[in-house]
Design goal:
Distance between the termini: 6 Å
Largest sheet: 5 strands, antiparallel
Mean pLDDT: 96
Strand order of the largest sheet: 12-13-14-15-16
Order of helices and strands: HEEEHHEEEEHHEEHHEEHHEEEHHEEHH
Length: 374
């Protein structure tokens, strides 16, 4: 057991998460507390997806009133066409596209509606505040309608279109039908149906949309590899994050789930380093990017703890010893080198990254056999 781990892995990650959450708080122009992506206040804005991960995985560490106010702060930035902001700045300005406000990477990412649904769902699940659910449902419905989808019901970006996909790959020019954003859409449809049912609203539309995703994602399955590809046109590479996420959210079932678990176990050394996770298998890099990203850096080959919890959860289903090894490596790196956004050999980007701490924490709460270890 590493020094400082006496309270178990959950206690260690909770301590790190508290530290980052305290440091990430900034105040907006109207007094709303904004939870920025890093524990140094480097980004003076509230990002929809980062905040969604915080609420999903670390809600017990948050003040419910502050969460509610931050959700409303984001929703006030929704565009007339339904588009949810990528982030809202401390001055109240909503920014819809990834990248610098004055130099957008392209059209808005294809995931913010799904994360907004997840935010409201998790808050309502934890508080029972159906008033916020009822007030938010019309806006959430417009947001879900705004997400670009193919005729088969998958989230899609037309070839040649300059648009970010899932935000943790927002520099990557994926086109065609998309794996990760479609998985998020499936999950958001399930959550929208649950919110509708609680508010005595019709839920059938979202059940049907979820079923369409279930049918459509067969198009991205690679039977030879036993994993999913990231997209159907540009960057149609084996997607490690998307494949493990399909297991984590319960999308993958039966034989497909078993094949994904074997893929994750057998290819472990090809995508994990120091307990952190590459988007693609080692040696592969994205074929098209929206801006230049050096190979081995950031979203083009670095290792992230954002996905570590998903992998820990999956590995625990098939190889508990390997999951324990990964967890020990992750905690050791955090304690020795800090909680970074992403890492690689001779490379570390942005210390005190909140999601790197909270996402593994949320996964470990689902894994009592791992959470007490460390």
């Amino acid at each position: 057991m590493a020094e400082g781990n006496e309270g178990g892995a959950v206690s260690v990650l909770e301590r790190l998460a508290r530290q980052e959450l305290e440091g990430c708080r900034v105040f907006a122009h109207d007094g709303t507390v904004l939870f920025t992506p890093d524990g140094q206040g480097h980004y003076a804005a509230l990002w929809t997806r980062d905040f969604a991960y915080v609420v999903e995985n670390a809600y017990p560490l948050l003040d419910p009133g502050e969460v509610r106010a931050a959700i409303r702060y984001l929703l006030r930035g929704q565009r007339a066409d339904g588009c949810i902001p990528d982030r809202v700045q401390a001055d109240g300005r909503a920014v819809y596209s990834a990248g610098a406000a004055g130099a957008p990477l392209g059209d808005p990412p294809t995931d913010n509606a799904q994360f907004m649904v997840g935010l409201v769902y998790e808050y309502v699940r934890c508080t029972g505040d159906l008033d916020l659910a009822r007030q938010s449902l019309p806006a959430l419905g417009r947001a879900m309608d705004h997400v670009p989808r193919s005729a088969e019901g998958l989230v899609a970006i037309a070839p040649g279109r300059r648009q970010s996909p899932y935000g943790f790959t927002d520099t990557v020019a994926k086109t065609g039908e998309l794996l990760f954003s479609s998985l998020l859409y499936w999950d958001a449809c399930d959550k929208m149906a649950a919110l509708c049912a609680q508010c005595d609203e019709e839920e059938g539309l979202y059940r049907r949309r979820a079923e369409a995703v279930e049918r459509g994602l067969d198009r991205l399955w690679d039977p030879a590899c036993g994993a999913y590809r990231a997209a159907t046109v540009d960057n149609a590479l084996i997607d490690v994050w998307g494949s493990v996420f399909a297991v984590y959210i319960g999308f993958a079932q039966g034989d497909r789930r078993e094949r994904l678990l074997r893929f994750l176990r057998d290819r472990y050394e090809a995508y994990v380093w120091r307990g952190q996770v590459r988007h693609l298998l080692r040696g592969e890099h994205w074929e098209r990017l929206l801006i230049p990203v050096e190979e081995g850096a950031y979203q083009n080959g670095a290792y992230w703890a954002t996905a570590s919890g998903w992998v820990l959860y999956a590995l625990a289903q098939i190889d508990l010893a390997l999951a324990r090894r990964m967890l020990a490596d992750l905690l050791h790196d955090f304690q020795e080198n800090g909680v970074c956004e992403c890492i690689n050999v001779g490379y570390r980007k942005l210390e005190h990254y909140v999601v790197s701490a909270v996402n593994p924490l949320g996964a470990l709460r689902r894994l009592p056999e791992l959470g007490a270890s460390g």
